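Before a colleague's protein record goes any further, I have to sign it off. What it holds is a sequence and that sequence's fold in token form. Would you go through it and say whether the fold makes sense for this chain? The record follows directly below this note.
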Amino acid sequence: RIEATMAATADQPLPAAAAALRSALLAAASLRLGLEVCEVDLQVTELLETEPERAETEPDEVRAAHAEDTAGRAAAGVAGV
């Protein structure tokens, strides 16, 4: 189960916006995380007058972490951790 909050504009009906977000969250949980999620509960916390501008950001640099203890070495051996 996923619980999330969302903000929405009047550009599309709330049920359509919620359905699109719900679908995206279910797909991300399954495809990216390998999780089986049965339901997504959304709460609309804000109604926006206009769509907020999206800041273009560069992806963070990917650096290898060095394991310093037993737990770190164990985590380093697990894919995706």
The first strand starts at residue 2 and ends at 9. Strands lie at 2-9, 40-48.
